[in-house]
Design goal:
heterotrimer, A mainly alpha (696), B mainly alpha (528), C mainly alpha (132), A: 696 residues, mainly alpha, two-stranded antiparallel sheet, globular, B: 528 residues
Chain lengths: 696, 528, 132
């Protein structure tokens, strides 16, 4: 079965092709059904490969199942195959993408039902699923890059889906351009890895990573440079500081797109890449530190911005940026499986929140401003309840999924063994403050939208009848996702519960269980001496061997914690603190402020003047980029076009100076259209040529 | 120091493709003379007055296609012989030798024309380009009522120049081949004599081309003065036996470089490109963008690999690297805001020259292979793209502007999808042929230690996506500009459709299964 | 290799050329009858105007004639050295590393002239020789 895993990619690809070629001639129902069915088939294949992987892994030494489809590029040392890699990490992502993808396809059949470009939408959406699967399943950096570019392209096309509005098209462009900066990093990072390890294949890279690293032929900057360049790519794709600016604007696309691409799957590609290449990142502790800092800073800044946004989707967008920051924080401290855990839970509750907001927007006839909502709970009960569950989940209320993953991240940060002094403490404080703000702004959105008095009556009743619940195709995915958001956390229960943790040993096989255990081991070292360490070392190797036997492994982990009663108590206290803070932010602050005493916020805004404006204007980062990069860049390009090409060809030389004075007079007669100038140019070039070769 | 030339007449069969194409030209001329000899008021090259569809061009097209196909068949035959022989070159024509030393061994021995696999692959590419361009020429001429039958002769002549450039290993031969390549093009650029842009393009190209040829031939004379011979091997031998390079030789090589860089359109020798590409009839532009580029890079890589091997790289590589960097920057910056598609593609051609020059800087057989692969991918994309421009443009205009492309995907979904795929391949999107080319070219340069140059080139290829995406944005994401009449291209003529399908299929095929292209290039490396 | 010395010959050649030219003019001035007139004082006697705008338009028919003439020029450029070396080409020479071509070189010239004549025929059919 495992060798048919390529079908997961093929199904959506076929869907995109058929819809693309014949979509115009098919009925809406047919093309929607086709699109969703293909993703459902893909999900079934993924599920089947999950089970067959488990049985395969039980009898295999290596956690990596490689499937070479065909030799892709074989030139000299460059040997790249079109090969897929099945391991716990990619299987998890595959299930997530196809599962959530299917629900969102289903939702879209309802949400987009009145849209002109219905079949086009499903073409892009199916193509996206295929590309995303290539990204996570590819067994080498080149194939991953194919998916990486592909999802970028789909995201670009989907953000600008309603292109009749110029603003949307511009947002799409912005997303693409910002992402290309990151892609540049990925390419160079891949180049560095290739030239030092002579392979782009993940399995080969992992296979000889430690031996090459130890052979001292590698200069010390190599893993750091590779890790940082790859992380640059991750900041682009996963909207981290300083490249986060595109994600809020990406909300210009249809809401299912925001849920699928800009919350659940594509934006987590950066996290996936870091987890996938975790040996490289682990080899460069400084890179880990930088990633943790960038993640924490992003989480914090995005959360502060989310506090004051009024557009329901903008709040969710900044919340996504903030949560992605949490995931990178986890990656930075080496807790890769925890990052993946948060990817999963975040996908559930954030997709649910986005779809819920889509349902609200649908009911409010494309109104996105929470200031004119309120009191919607009684008109759309299903949306209300699912949104509530997801809000509690993201806020971190026990026992919903967000609590477990976020709490695990906070705990890993607090116990991070690092050379960077008090970094864990500072990062922990930033993270807990962010968690507090998260609970507050999510409460704010929730209460403003669903509770309190309806503020939409005046302008609304004149044109429309009451808001109504969405059709079943839209509410069904909401219910499923809300259920997952509620119970998803039980996949990775914290150690102090002594319950079996399913996710950790499962993912440890591919996200470096060794590192995980080494951290634990180092703690153990302090009290138990080296014997305990050796024990854990063995346990780690067993981990690689048998994915089936996680129960014993999990037990082995727990022993480490059980032996330190104090650590366990601390962990419980930490968890209680974060739950208490979240509950206080939700019930103590957000609820009174945004339901009963609605006017009080105005006073708060004036008293907090500058801080409020800083947050409302997103820390002025867009403006900063605008003045620092966009304007000079545009001026240069525009100047070249305008001055050299237009003005001179038209023979107009007036008024050139004020546009491009700083480029100087010398290069102006560049594209004049006059042969004599071209000839002179040629002559000058010849002089330069002669000078360069003779004056050595 | 130089011995006399020996003419190897027994090996003339190796020039088969060139001879076949020459015969094709002769047949075309003769046919034109005889064909219309019975018509009183029609001169050869024109089409009968009672032939509004221009079907009189058909015989010329058929003869050209037959000639090109025969040449391709001959190339495959020669390649087969070459493989069977197992050597690096099938034949060396017009061999020259250095003076023998005391033991009677010649210091060097090389033909002015080397019929090796590299040359044969360049020839193959040239013949394929000839077929593609002649195919798209017919509907183009018909739609514009430009019944000029001579252009087939001129196209074939230019192709002969290409073939010779691929084989040439002697500066004089190179010069003659470049002229044979260029002179017909000067005429072809001015093909649509009613359009002032076309005439302007022809004249500009001619004047600047003549100027650049002057540099080339002057450089060659200086090289002769220093070395005493024009054969590349002679130059290489001279360089290796004279550690102190004379300034005369350096100046000569630089001036030869200027002449070649002009045809390659490296910045700062590029100024003619946008004007000429835009003004020339679109199929001719396609020929220039593909054929001339292939031929000139073939000439350049021969010069670098065969003659400059003994020269310290700093004497030529630094200048080339500077020009490569300039080409990438200038090409990208100027392309960003162009409103004309042809002009944008012209600037993008300059950028591509920059990437290719990066591989040229690397030098060596691997770079020759990568260049061939990159060029093949680029030719496919650029012929296809220019063909689509020819198809979409209004008859009186011969160019397409971006605001005319708006909303094109709604009315011409197939054409827009094809154009999108082809320009994305030019940009180097993975899973297209263009990506493979870029990957290999950058790999070579990196392996040659040109790390800074590669980083710069990667950065530029990232930037270049911005303007390639303008095609997608215009076609898929922008509503029609109020007040502009939509493009009315009608249904696609068969010749266009064939070219479009073939180019798109090859682009994707080579992207997904690049091994086909790589193996194709692999056997084209055996230089030296 | 010291190339500067060799280039002295070039200078000498230039100097010699200038001397010959000067000598010719001087001799002509001494020998010719002097009979100046309005038209004879023009720079060129070919009918072109010596004064006026440099960008004067020439009749394009001149160019066509010039191109046809060029064909014969090319003819001569190749035929002269061929004729001068004909014996060598056919029979070769002792002590030279040169493979004689035999009668092939005679046919080769026919091919060459044939190609040129074909071009001439084309030009003729095209009406390049008609002064319209």
């Amino acid at each position: 079965m495992l060798q048919y895993v390529w079908l997961t990619i093929a199904f959506p690809l076929v869907g995109a092709l058929v819809n693309g070629l014949f979509g115009q001639r098919m009925s809406k129902k047919a093309s929607g059904t086709l699109g969703s069915a293909m993703v459902f088939l893909s999900f079934l294949t993924a599920l089947a490969s999950y089970f067959s992987y488990k049985s395969w892994a039980a009898g295999s030494d290596s956690p990596y199942f490689e499937l070479t489809l065909w030799p892709w590029i074989h030139v000299g040392q460059l040997q790249i195959d079109a090969a897929l890699l099945i391991d716990p990490l990619s299987t998890t992502m595959m299930l997530l993408i196809t599962g959530v993808g299917f629900l969102i396809h289903l939702y879209s059949t309802g949400y987009m039902s009145h849209d002109k470009g219905y079949s086009r939408f499903f073409v892009y959406l199916n193509l996206f699923i295929a590309m995303m699967l290539i990204l996570v399943l590819g067994n080498n950096l080149a194939l991953m890059f194919v998916g990486w570019e592909g999802v970028g392209l789909c995201s670009y096309l989907l953000i600008g889906f309603w292109y009749q509005d110029m603003y949307n098209a511009k947002c799409g462009m912005k997303a693409f351009v910002v992402n290309r900066i990151g892609d540049f990093g990925v390419l160079l990072g891949a180049f560095i890895l290739f030239w030092n390890f002579n392979t782009l294949s993940f399995t080969e890279l992992f296979g000889n990573f430690s031996s090459v690293m130890n052979s001292a032929t590698i200069e010390s900057w190599v893993p750091l440079a590779a890790a940082l360049l790859l992380f640059l790519g991750a900041t682009g794709k996963s909207a981290q500081l300083p490249l986060h600016i595109w994600l809020p604007d990406a909300m210009a696309g249809p809401t299912p797109v925001s849920a699928l691409i800009h919350a659940a799957t594509m934006v987590t590609a950066g996290v996936y890449m870091v987890c996938r290449l975790n040996p490289v990142f682990t080899a460069a502790p400084t890179a880990g530190f930088i990633i943790a800092c960038v993640g924490a800073a992003t989480a914090f800044i995005a959360a502060t911005i989310a506090l004051t946004q009024n557009d329901i989707k903008k709040v969710l967008a900044y919340s996504t940026v903030s949560q992605l920051g949490f995931m990178f924080l986890a990656c930075g401290v080496g807790a890769y499986w925890v990052a993946m855990f948060h990817v999963l839970t975040h996908a559930f509750f954030k997709a649910c929140l986005f779809l819920g907001s889509g349902s609200v927007i649908h009911a409010m006839h494309e109104e996105q401003d929470t200031r004119v909502m309120g009191g919607l709970a009684k008109y759309m009960p299903l949306t209300y309840w699912t949104f509530l569950i997801s809000t509690l989940a993201i806020a971190g209320i026990v026992p919903l999924s967000g609590f477990f993953s976020k709490d695990e991240i906070l705990w890993r940060v607090a116990t991070w063994q690092t050379q960077f002094g008090s970094a864990p403490m500072i990062l922990w404080f930033v993270a807990i403050a962010t968690a507090f703000m998260t609970a507050f702004y999510m409460g704010r959105v929730f209460f403003k939208t669903f509770l309190g008095k309806p503020r939409w009556t005046k302008h609304y009743v004149e044109h429309h009848h009451h808001p109504h619940e969405s059709p079943r195709s839209m509410t069904f995915p909401l219910v499923v996702l809300a259920t997952l958001a509620a119970i998803g956390g039980f996949m990775g229960l914290p150690h102090f519960t002594h319950a079996p943790n399913f996710l950790e040993p499962w993912l440890a096989a591919s996200t470096g269980g060794e590192e995980q255990l080494n951290i634990v081991g180092r703690i153990g070292l302090e009290e138990h001496g080296s014997a305990a360490h050796d024990d854990h070392g063995t346990a780690a190797h067993d981990d690689h061997g048998a994915a089936a036997g996680h129960a014993e492994d999990a037990a082995a982990h727990h022993e480490a914690f059980v032996s330190f009663g104090s650590t366990e108590t601390t962990e419980i206290i930490f968890a209680l603190v974060s739950v208490a803070l979240a509950a206080f932010a939700l019930l103590g602050l957000a609820m009174p402020l945004y339901t009963k005493r609605f006017g009080a916020t105005e006073k708060l805004h004036t008293s907090l003047g500058p801080l409020y404006r800083l947050s409302l204007n997103k820390w002025y980062i867009d403006e900063l980029y605008h003045y620092l990069i966009v304007i000079p860049g545009t001026a240069l390009a525009y100047g070249c076009w305008r001055v050299f090409d237009m003005k001179f060809i038209d023979g107009i030389v007036n008024g050139v100076g004020n546009v491009l004075g700083w480029l100087g007079h010398g290069v102006r007669p560049f594209q004049t259209g006059f042969v004599r100038n071209y000839a002179m140019y040629l002559l000058l070039g010849a002089v330069v040529y002669l000078a360069l070769s003779l004056l050595k | 120091m130089i011995d006399r030339d020996v003419i190897g007449y027994d090996q003339i069969y190796a020039l088969g493709p060139v001879i076949i194409l020459t015969l094709t030209v002769l047949v075309l001329i003769l046919a034109d003379c005889i064909w219309r000899a019975f018509s009183r008021h029609v001169k050869p090259g024109d089409v009968e007055h009672d032939d509004p569809a221009g079907m009189g061009l058909m015989p010329n097209l058929v003869i050209t296609l037959i000639g090109a196909t025969a040449a391709i068949a001959d190339i495959f035959y020669l390649l087969g012989r070459l493989r069977a022989g197992g050597g690096t070159a099938l034949a060396e024509l017009f061999i020259a030798r250095g003076f023998p030393d005391a033991t009677g061994r010649h210091a060097w021995e090389a033909g002015a024309l080397a019929i090796d696999s590299f040359g044969l692959y360049v020839a193959l590419l040239g013949c394929l380009i000839l077929i593609a361009v002649s195919l798209i020429m017919l509907p183009y001429l018909q739609s514009r009522r430009l019944f000029r039958a001579e252009l087939f002769q001129l196209l074939v002549l230019s192709t002969i120049g290409m073939l010779l450039l691929g084989f040439s290993r002697d500066l004089l031969n190179t010069f003659i081949a470049i002229e044979l390549l260029s002179l017909p093009l000067y005429v072809l650029c001015g093909l649509s004599d009613k359009s002032s842009a076309s005439r302007e393009s022809s004249l500009k190209y001619f004047l600047l081309g003549a100027f650049a040829s002057g540099f080339l031939i002057y450089g060659a004379s200086l090289v002769y003065g220093a070395v005493g011979h024009l054969n590349y091997k002679a130059i290489a031998f001279y360089l290796s036996s004279n550690p102190d390079v004379s300034n005369v030789l350096l100046a000569g090589l630089s001036l030869v470089g200027v002449g070649i860089a002009f045809k390659l359109a490296l910045v700062p020798f590029h100024a003619w490109v946008p004007d000429v590409y835009q003004g020339a009839p679109t199929p001719v532009t396609a020929f220039m963008a593909s054929g001339v580029k292939v031929a000139m890079f073939a000439a350049a890589i021969r010069l670098v690999n065969d003659s400059l091997v003994g020269l310290d790289a700093q004497y030529w590589r630094d200048a080339l690297a500077v020009f490569a960097i300039l080409s990438m920057i200038i090409g990208n910056l100027f392309a960003l805001h162009q409103s004309s598609v042809k002009r944008l593609l012209a600037y993008s051609a300059i950028t591509h020259t920059g990437y290719l020059a990066v591989a040229l800087c690397a030098g060596g057989p691997a770079a020759a292979q990568s260049l061939l692969i990159y060029l093949a991918a680029y030719c496919i994309a650029s012929i296809g793209a220019f063909m689509l421009v020819a198809y979409l443009s209004r008859p009186g205009q011969d160019d397409v502007y971006f605001d005319e492309l708006h909303d094109l995907s709604q009315r011409y979904p197939a054409a827009s999808a094809a154009l999108a795929i082809l320009v994305l391949s030019m940009g180097g999107l993975p899973m297209t042929a263009g990506f493979i080319g870029k990957l290999l070219v950058f790999r070579d340069a990196w392996a040659a230690g040109l790390h800074g140059l590669v980083i710069f080139a990667v950065l530029n290829s990232v930037v270049s996506f911005y303007f390639y995406l303008r095609f997608l944005r215009a076609m898929y994401m922008q509503p029609r500009v109020p007040g502009t009449a939509p493009l009315e291209a009608g249904s696609m003529p068969a010749a266009y459709a064939i070219t479009a399908v073939v180019s798109v299929v090859l682009t994707i095929l080579f992207g997904v299964l690049p091994q086909l292209l790589v193996e194709w290039g692999n056997s084209g490396v055996m230089l030296q | 290799m010291n190339t500067t010395g060799e280039y002295n010959w070039v200078a000498l050649f230039l100097f010699g050329g200038a001397c010959v030219l000067g000598l010719a003019f001087a001799l002509a001035a001494l020998l010719r009858p002097s009979n100046p007139g309005l038209f004879k004082r023009l720079t060129f006697e070919s009918g072109a105007r010596a004064l006026g705008d440099a960008l004067v338009r020439f009749n394009v028919r001149f160019y066509i004639l010039a191109i046809v003439f060029l064909m014969f020029d090319v003819d001569v450029v190749f035929i002269f050295p061929w004729a001068a070396a004909f014996r060598l080409l056919v029979f070769g020479e002792e002590n030279r590393l040169f493979t004689p071509m035999g009668p092939a070189c005679l046919w080769e010239m026919f091919v060459f002239i044939g190609i040129l004549m074909l071009g001439w025929a084309y030009a003729y059919r095209k009406g390049a020789l008609e002064w319209v």
